[in-house]
Amino acid sequence: MAEVDHLAAERATARFDVEEMKVAWAGSRHAVHVADRMARLVASDPVFRKDNRTMLSRKELFKDTLRKAAHAWKRIVELRLTEEEADLLRQYVDQPGYVDLHWGMFVPAIKGQGTEEQQHKWLPLAYKFQIIGCYAQTELGHGSNVQGLETTATFDPKTDEFVIHSPTLTSSKWWPGGLGKASTHAVVYARLITEGKDYGIHGFIVQLRSLEDHSPLPGVTLGDIGGKFGSGAYNSMDNGVLRFDHVRIPRDQMLMRLSQVTREGKYVHSNVPKQLLYGTMVYVRQSIVADASKALSRAVCIAVRYSAVRKQFGSQDGGPETQVLNYKTQQSRLFPLLASAYAFRFVGDWLNWLYTDVTQKLEAKDFSTLQEAHACTAGLKAVTTSVTADAIEECRKLCGGHGYLNSSGLPELFAVYVPACTYEGDNVVLLLQVARILMKTVSQLASGKQPVGTMAYMGKVQYLMQCKSAVSSAEDWLNPDAIQEAFEARALRMAVNCAQNISQAASQEEGFYERSPDLLEAAVAHIQLIIVTKFIEKVHQEIPGHGVKEQLQALCNVYALYILHKHLGDFLATGCITPRQGALANEQLGKLYAQVRPNAVALVDAFNYTDHYLGSVLGRYDGDVYPALYEEAWKDPLNETVVPEGYHEYLRPLIKQQQLKLSRL
Ligand SMILES: CCCCCCCCCC/C=C\C/C=C/C(=O)SCCNC(=O)CCNC(=O)[C@H](O)C(C)(C)COP(=O)(O)OP(=O)(O)OC[C@H]1O[C@@H](n2cnc3c(N)ncnc32)[C@H](O)[C@@H]1OP(=O)(O)O
Ligand SMILES: Cc1cc2nc3c(=O)[nH]c(=O)nc-3n(C[C@H](O)[C@H](O)[C@H](O)COP(=O)(O)OP(=O)(O)OC[C@H]3O[C@@H](n4cnc5c(N)ncnc54)[C@H](O)[C@@H]3O)c2cc1C
Q1: CA dist 313 to 316, 317, 318, Å?
Q2: Which ligand 1 atom lies nearest to the CA of residue 378?
Q3: Which of 206, 423, 430, 433 maximizes ligand 2 atoms within 8 Å of its Cβ, making it the mutation to test the pocket?
Q4: Over 90: is that where the pLDDT of 659 sits?
Q5: Which residues, other chains included, contact 288 with Cβ-Cβ below 8 Å and sequence gap of 6+?
Q6: CB distance 280 to ligand 2 below 6 Å
Q7: Which intervals hold domain Acyl-CoA oxidase C-alpha1 (predicted)?
Q8: According to the model, what pLDDT value does residue 317 have?
Q9: Is 411 close to ligand 2, i.e. is its CB under 6 Å away?
Q10: For the chain, what percentages of helix, strand and coil (3-state, to nearest 5) are there?
């Protein structure tokens, strides 16, 4: 804990129990305790130092990542950490690397798509790091369109093998994390061809590198695809390129849980939906939603603390300067992001519950909730990552000039985070998936089919298409029923409008194509409704701790009314509310900001982040920002010498030349 707490006065104004809010944020007392222990373990270990990361060359950074991953594994084994503890330890190490893909995609792909026998063979090797795996799906020519992948896996009945081949340049695998330099194995997605017939995309376990000397196996060409956006940042990851020249693998390395190829080469598809092939992506999308709240809360924590420390302009009578956090504009930009961090946290928890529930149903061969899982994971992944990426950049601006310094932590956070809008499904492509499901649901309403799950509100179509908001004062917007109804009516009316417009087109497909910009907005409205609903449900639960429920209630209202204000056009155009009701919502929002203000610093303290994890001189717990900024500047390699390298070559001759010219005048 800091010796001088420059934020003590801020902390003293909090009207709630911060320790209890930590529990509400983390999910349980146990979760707070474990996270705290793992965060401190990482922060106190010099190997996990990261303050010099943006100054390392790519090669140094990659080696540093290998070192940290190996050290993390050593600590996990030495301390016999549980899976939960190990996941948290890796999170706090906070450096993207091959292990993310090994644990996050390679292992889940084998678990989800491998038979019991295959799991028995491969998982123990992966669990002990005797092999390192990645997820090789995307190709140079195709990423979003998975059915368009070109790599082939042709069964050869003579040898009982598959022949994995990259027939074109565009079929080169391109992007898989961990592939470039670290992985020994990959789950490769390729078109299965047997008995002369193409059966589409399937997963195969393929060894890429020797387990003796790490050299590529015969027929395998692979490497790193090159530097990426931002210094440090995602450049710690070896995203790779991979080509196969007729590489042979045994038949039993096709992942055969969903479909099989027999010894004779017969293709057999189990009686399960084909989309289960996409199961690993669904799993990762739900974990990306949980990660969004982590990234967003880090940025918000930095911006809130710094805004409380930073002062600009005096009062009218020449008194002390004003904390920038007191400016209403700063509050109206920052507090919705604070509320969004909490909203994403709770919707992430709910999504994790949904995912677990769907997985259990799938085990019991009940596929009825597959569409719901797909729509929710795809849509929430898209909305939460887009908002978070924009919000990190907004937090940088909220920190003024100092936010642009690497030492603020924000440039690196942004550069690491922003590809989340693209990987695991481009956000637009994913929202169009949600829109397709919305259109299908609307079209089924006429036949009386009752929508279920997060689409259930559409069943109230008669009411929601004509209801009028009863709000007549700013306070009325504090009523969760008023918010819920307005959001439901907006989402449904936008979807129905789209469906009506599509029905006038020559074909459903053409209508969908023409109306896709509107469909995106309808999908966003539906997803925002889910986030608002889950926040309202959370606040309805019993929440212990002095003032905790009240603060969450205020944040829930901030989130909902901010979205309403931002998307006012939708609410007005669909006739869900009147312009006057829109103005009242904005009035209430201003009152809520004033309510949040004295609690703001404590609300970010509740995230319980160590200074190491935050990695920001601006976001320091003690608020002692200026000495830290000053000290940090001197650590830059440019300041290693007083006179810079290159002075004698380029600066001195220039200056001397000018002096000579002047002396001649
Ligand atoms: C502590 C552990 C933490 C773990 C976290 C680790 C995180 C590590 C993070 C590391 C960082 C980066 C890693 C990145 C990895 C990657 O990017 S991997 C590659 C990801 N690629 C994509 O996401 C591709 C996106 N494209 C697609 O998903 C599909 O191509 C698309 C859905 C767009 C279209 O597919 P089609 O087969 O053409 O299907 P379509 O005709 O549109 O639909 C047919 C039918 O199927 C339904 N559907 C589609 N997808 C799914 C699904 N996933 N699940 C269930 N159902 C699905 C769709 O709704 C249609 O249904 P209908 O009833 O027939 O209408
Ligand atoms: C950092 C990073 C890590 C990655 N890691 C992995 C990995 O480990 N394994 C792996 O297999 N892949 C990985 N990927 C690849 C990633 O999954 C793809 O890049 C992603 O799915 C997007 O596909 P794409 O690149 O083909 O984009 P494209 O589909 O080419 O997108 C280009 C543009 O076209 C638009 N677009 C595309 N289709 C449509 C449509 N139907 N309607 C409207 N607009 C459309 C998109 O919105 C986008 O604006 C990674 C990518 C990144 C950036």
Answers
A1: 9, 11, 9
A2: 53
A3: 423
A4: no
A5: 381, 384, 385, 420, 424
A6: no
A7: 278-439
A8: 73
A9: no
A10: 60, 10, 30
Residue 557's DSSP bridge partners are: none
Q: Which of 366, 478, 375 is nearest to 432 (CA)?
A: 375
Q: What is the whole-number distance in angstroms between the Cα of residue 231 and the centre of ligand 1?
A: 30
Residue by residue, DSSP assigns 233-244 as GGGGS--EEEEE
Mean pLDDT of the chain: 96
- Residues in the ligand 1 pocket, defined by CB under 6 Å: 87, 100-101, 104, 135, 137-138, 144-147, 177, 275, 278, 281-282, 284, 287, 370, 374, 423-425, 429, 433, 437
Check if the beta carbon of residue 254 is closer than 8 Å to that of residue 162: yes
Q: In what helix (H) or strand (E) does residue 193 lie, and over which residues does it extend?
A: strand 185-194
117 is catalytic: no
Q: Are strands 133-136 and 185-194 parallel, antiparallel or unpaired?
A: parallel
> Does the pLDDT at position 239 exceed 80?
yes
Residue among 412, 396, 341 nearest 21 (CA): 341
Structure tokens belonging to residue 273: 């939906």
Q: Give 85-90 contacts, CB < 8 A, sequence gap 24+.
A: 85/34, 85/37, 85/38, 88/34, 88/35, 88/38, 88/39, 89/38, 89/41, 89/42
Ligand 1 closest atom vs CA 425: 23
d(CA 325, CA 309): 8
The tokens for 282 are: 């669904």
Handedness of CA 443, 446, 452, 458 (dihedral sign): positive
Among protein residues, the one with the nearest Cα to ligand 1's atom 22 is: 425
* Per-residue pLDDT reduced to its tens digit, 409-438: 999 999 999 999 999 999 999 999 999 999
Q: Give the pLDDT band of residue 402 (cuts 50, 70, 90).
A: very high
Binding residues: 138, 177
Task: Report the CATH architecture of 132-271.
Answer: Beta Barrel (2.40)
Is pLDDT at 315 greater than 80 in this prediction?
Answer: no
- Please state the length of the chain: 665
Do 548 and 17 touch, CB atoms closer than 8 A?
yes
- In three-state form (DSSP H/G/I as H, E/B as E, the rest C), the secondary structure along 283-326 is HHHHHHHHHHHHHHHHHHHHHHHHHHHCEEEECCCCCCEEEHHH
Task: Write the CB contacts of 247 (distance below 8 Å, at least 6 apart in sequence).
Answer: 163, 164, 165, 206, 217, 218, 219, 220
Quote the ligand 1 centre to 455 CA distance (angstroms). Answer: 20
**Which residues are CB-contacts of 24 (< 8 A; sequence separation ≥ 6)?**
543, 545, 548, 552, 606
Round to whole Å and give the CA distance between 398 and 304: 9
Whose atoms come closest to the Cα of 188: which ligand?
2
Residue type present at position 479: N
CA distance 9 to 7: 6
Q: Compute the CA torsion angle 340, 344, 346, 352 (nearest 10 deg).
A: 180
Tell me the ipTM for this assembly. Answer: 0.98
Mutate to test the pocket of ligand 2, among 228, 235, 426 (most ligand atoms within 8 A of CB): 426
**Binding region for FAD:** 138, 177
